[in-house]
User: Fold these one by one.
Assistant:
Number 1:
Amino acid sequence: MESMSGTDLPKYNEFHWPALLALRSLGGSGSISEIEAAVAEQMGFTEEQQSILHQGGPMTEIGYRLHWARTYLKGMGLATNTERGVWALTLKGREVTEQEIKPLRNEYLTRMRKKREAAHVASNEDGDPDDGELSWQDRLLEALLEMEPDAFERLCRRVLREAGFSRTQVLGKSGDGGLDGVGVYRLSLVSFPVFFQAKRWRNSVGSKEIRDFRGAMAGRGEKGLLITTATFTAEAKAEASRDGAPPVDLVDGATLCDLLADYGIGVNVTERVVREVEINHQELGAI
């Protein structure tokens, strides 16, 4: 069967209102992965649609279009975001109606057109953004995708060690049953083994991979961690936390990038932030 393309998905501007509704359904704020999951459920996207890659990856087409939808919401004064990737509605974003979105979007596009030449940002007549410079996360994910599989597994082991795991080891190539490694995590006075699987993928991880991973753990452990350079479909996230089944924690590509930056693994981070704090009474009133 021929694979689907981005033309099978709604246009960029058709993601603005769903992204705003997703934030409302999340109580007014949410992480990028929470927003994507809420939009996927709201719009009824299939796993195949969620797996469509934007120009070969590593970002999915839905993730890419939602990235721009969030940018537009911010430009329209409807949402704000923090450095940690948490997005929140402004008071205006809580009260705006669907009919008001298009005029606000046109006002934002008019402002952006005036700045286009200086900012090197372009858009076509439909308001669909052209590709600009890759973010550091995208460049890091491309570097991870070029790693050898065993090197990526070792990288994941080091991340777990930095996160507080002990006795972390990469399992052998034969007889590991699909499990890439195991570590021991201590929580207060209790410690327990956590099996992990590292997927150096471009395509989204679906519910089947979660079930296969859980099956590989059967009889060996009750806690799993799946780490990938890609994203997880909404069905995969639901399967990972399904009632009555051993839980599987998920680390997607964006989260992995943040962890590598936090621990200084494979990246050099230079802090150049001078914090100036001013009380935002309008935002506090919108919470």
Number 2:
Amino acid sequence: MPDPILAHTSLGRDVSYPSQYSPQLLFPIARSTNRQHLDIPQAWHGGDIWNAYELSWLNAKGKPVVAIGRFIFPQHSPMLIESKSFKLYLNSFNETRHDTVEAVAELLKRDLAHAAGAPVDVVLDTDFASNAFVCGPMQGDSIDDTDIEISHYRPQAGLLATVPDAEIVTETLVSDLLKSNCPVTGQPDWGSVQVRYTGPQIDRGALLAYIVSLRQHTEFHEHCVEQMYCDLWHACRPERLLVYARYTRRGGLDINPWRSSEPTDVSLARTPRQ
């Protein structure tokens, strides 16, 4: 049954682009709705990293300014932001005047924190000559060439397994075969995923089959990463775990959630597919 809350989003509907600054366009969605179905570990950390490539406003003299924006929402915020409403909100800056880049950043921080229910980190980059948004593949051993037969295309936590008589290892595994679908429009969301852990060695074929099992799953990016994290944590019993996904761009935005058993740093580099 479709979520009645999602019926009120701008996703999948024709919506006129705003002609003036409109923070009310932001559409928050409670994280708790999805999390009540997950067996969440007692303590976890993470964030949702958004990059915006279609961000512009007018300076005090009416001259356009363009920027790349990075927005990091903490995983403990009670709300996430629906992506099309975020896009419409950012476009509401297009024809409005602001004195400085700093003034725009503060306005974004205020509006996004109000919608998410927690402080949001905002960085606006207007110096493209020294752009820090570098490109590179996710670091780790790719498991995509593992020769396995796959028959499940909806989430199957039971596919996950460790190798027989598994030793404790520390390794980072990556796959570019992640795909899920938007829960409102049904359109595909393509991504890459990194699994970094210390614990009993994970069976790589089993992990790849599990990642592919999300192929027909309909859920937001953040929720998919949280499900992967919880399934791995309970099925493989690692001592430490990080699950980090970088999804390809849609509507000038890419979304990159990560969840970890401990505070950590993640790479901000775009993948070649982004």
